[in-house]
Structure formats: C-alpha cells, structure tokens
Amino acid sequence: TAATSSPMPSEAIVVSAHNLTKAYRLFGHPGDRVKQFLSLGLRRYHRQFTALQDVSFEVRQGEMLGIIGRNGSGKSTLLQLVCGILKPSAGTVQVNGRVSALLELGAGFNPEFTGRENVYFQGALAGFSRAQMAMRFNAIAAFADIGEFVDQPVRTYSSGMFLRLAFAVAVHVDPAILVVDEALAVGYAGFRARCFRRIGELRGAGCTILFVSHDMEQIATLCDRVILLEDGRQLLSG
Q1: CA-closest candidate to residue 179, choices 199, 205, 149
Q2: Which positions ≥6 away from 154 have C-beta within 8 Å?
Q3: Cβ distance 13 to 58 under 8 Å?
Q4: Which of 3-7, 20-24, 66-70, 151-155 has the lowest average pLDDT?
Q5: E-assigned strand segments in 28-119
Q6: Within its chain, how far is the Cα of 179 from the centroid?
Q7: Angle 130-144/115-125 helices, nearest 10 degrees?
Q8: Cβ neighbours around 215 below 10 Å, total
Q9: What is the pTM of this model?
Q10: What is the distance of C-alpha 15 from the center of its chain?
Q11: What phi and psi values does residue 187 have, to the nearest 5 degrees?
C-alpha cells in the first residue's frame, strides 16, 4: 500500500499502469524447482503462465473504474498488483494515496482474532494508531451490524458477517483509493444497498474506486469507465 501523499489537485492521476505484466513459473513436480536451480538455466523444468500482459491505463481522482472479464482473465491479479500484494514481472504501476482493499473473503484478517482485534489490526496496517481506530470503532461496528459477534473469533463468522465487517473497515480508514474485487456478491440485498450508498459518499468526497464485478447492471450504473480483460490482455477500454 502506498503511503498517503499530499493533497492532490482535482482530477489528478492517482493510479497509472504501463505495460503491466505478471508471469509465473509453473512446475509439474516439487523437485523440478531444485532441478531448475541446479541447471543454471541450461534446461527448463517449468512452463510459463502469463496471468497479465501489457496492460496500461490511468485512473483520475474521483473516477470509478470497472474491471470486467471472465474468470481467469486477470482481474484479481491486476488488483493485487495495484494494491502492492504482487510485484509485476514487467511494466510499472504507480499509486498515489492510501489504498483500502476488499479482495477475496479472508484476505488480511487473522481468523483467530476477534472482529474487534481485526479492526485494530487492519487500522495499524493502514497507518492508524490505536487511539485513532478507537475513534472510528463505533462507526465501523454500527455499519457492520454484527452485534456481539464483533467480540468473537472471525473463524466463527458466516461469509456474510465477514463481508460486513471487512467492508466496514475498508470504508472507514479514509481511503484515497478503494479496491473492491467481487466481494459484494455474497452480501444480502439490504447490506449491498448500504455499501453502494457508502461508495457514492466516498466518490463524492473524491475517492477513486476500482471495482470488479460480474454484475453488468452494477457496472453500468456505478462506473465512469470500464476495461475488459481477456486471457490476461486488455481487450477493450471505454
């Protein structure tokens, strides 16, 4: 996650990706890793899998960019690169501002910690002191609306309860950039409506949002622009 920068002028570019590429080495057997190392590159014991290739785009402050494509098209890989979870194999991605991400359920939360402990833990990762998170805690708990479960280990949560807490934290840490990866698909209708109202409030305050969804109605209603990925490549943008 990039550090918070100084205030940016209106419509400043906050996410900039150029020829972004992520490739993996896939080994058929665990011992092939050792063979590859010992071969000094003279033989090849792996095959290359390119999850993302030569993707370029810019997102301005306050924009909501939709990212669509079939499963396996590279959407989650792209978001993880933007968040700094993955390092690119080639190309660059520059992010200006604090990123708050809601990726796959469970990401970043310790299942043995209580909901309350995870709230403070996530706040610390975002650069907030315990006192600062204490000031936000009641608002987070009210938004999540999981009652006494906030003091139970998150491993006991349903997927819906986990989503409610994770989203509540993500939108209460003053993000300059909010990244949402299909997570809202598991929420019940009333909570999704609350989430989208909050997303609207964040956009009104100048927050930039990257949004992955298979729901084309959501994409058409919420997003300013969309990029379509297919087999790791950027097929269309507009």
Answers
A1: 199
A2: 109, 110, 111, 113, 114, 115, 118, 162, 165
A3: yes
A4: 3-7
A5: 46-60, 64-68, 90-95, 99-102
A6: 4
A7: 130
A8: 14
A9: 0.80
A10: 13
A11: -80, 155
